[in-house]
User: Fold this.
Amino acid sequence: MITKEYIKELKINGNGDLSELARNNLSNAGNLVSILKNLGHLPVNFDGKWLLELTNSRFSQVRELAVKNIAKLTQHEYLETLKKIIKTDTDTNVRREAVSAIGRMRNINNKKILIEILQDTDPKIVCQAIRGLLVFKNDEEINNSLKTLINHENEMIRTVIYKEYFAKEQKQESVLPHAKTYEYLKNVIVNGDVREILKNVPNESIHLTFTSPPYYNARDYSIYPSYEAYLSFLEQVFLETYRITKEGRFLIVNTSPIIIPRISRAHSSKRYPIPFDIHHYLMQMGWEFIDDIIWLKPEYSVKNRIGGFQQHRKPLAYKPNSVTEYLMVYRKQTEKLIDWNIHQYDYHTVEQSKVPEGYETTNVWKIDPKFDKIHSAVFPVELCKRVVEYYSFKGDLIFDPFAGSGTLGRTAKNLDRYFFLTEQEPTYFEYMKTFVRKEGLFNLFKEKPTLFLTLKEFKETII
Assistant:
């Protein structure tokens, strides 16, 4: 058996034993892979000639790992072989490793080779060449060659070039530090049209939005003249949400396709793919798509659509029971990495906000729905808990533009976050007040009791 310890022993004895071992296993891809994966650090005087032989292997993984090890040597004598691999190999990963090997030489004399690779038709190869060239950003020829890629067909290449050469430092529109927000927004619930309310909220005020938009004409509280009007309404709301969201922070939208029942047996019902139609608008605004999470419900908890099919099982009439909803995760566009957002908080806050053990490791969340006699589409507490813990820090401001019964607000406060909620329906607004009397959950932070305000009253609180 070829082990890491055995490879280390052979390496100490010299290249001869290693090369002999490799040649004795030319037809055994598994053994060759083990050898190449366990080579580890290679000394400067390492003779890589036997690695060159493996770049002609019929096994693509062997070729890739051979080139990867050649890259550790960063020696100019391997340059011609690497150039040949880039031009002739049929595997993208092998070619990419060859480009990486040239880049790792960090030799300005190789710039012509890397500049030529920028014309490759494979975006992965081009990106690797860009990485190698960016080491020499003080070279005018390199900079000019890279800048032309701003019009490249591939979006990833355009994004990299834009960040390196054309992006200006975003003007911080908020007058507050990233981790802070305005006092008059903390633990506030406003009754009114969310679009009008948000006009009074400053730029970059909130850290996280989690919401479930009203389902198009599926509930009494969500009647719109047309599907286009419905999407336009959501577009306006999420555009304002984008403005008030802090740089690089998250929006999570919970929704699912819905069915509008047929008028009569002579007509068909219509199914609207809400999450997929909303997605286009969000991307146009500048939200960056991050993840899709599936909320999986027990089958007994959903409306039975399969009953008719179970009786006759005729093709074309199959209608599965819908036991899932989507949580579409988006991030406000930024040139900064996630680490930048994290570093805006002090050490104590980051440590106190760490997600507890037992967190979900997949994008399928099995959570029972909650049923309520007042509101027909209530967030389960567990759903809110996961979102708040996974996507915010203690002390953050959590926003829900369609608050309903206020589950997100209560959950946020229980997790030491602040909340800002808006709700247009007076019935639900009044319903949220009952939780204060029954549970006192809205008043856990005595220094910030919950305020229930009309739009007019909210405007009067703005300092």
In short: The chain has two domains: 4-166, 183-260+269-333+353-461. The radius of gyration is 29 Å. The CA atoms of residues 48 and 94 lie 17 Å apart.
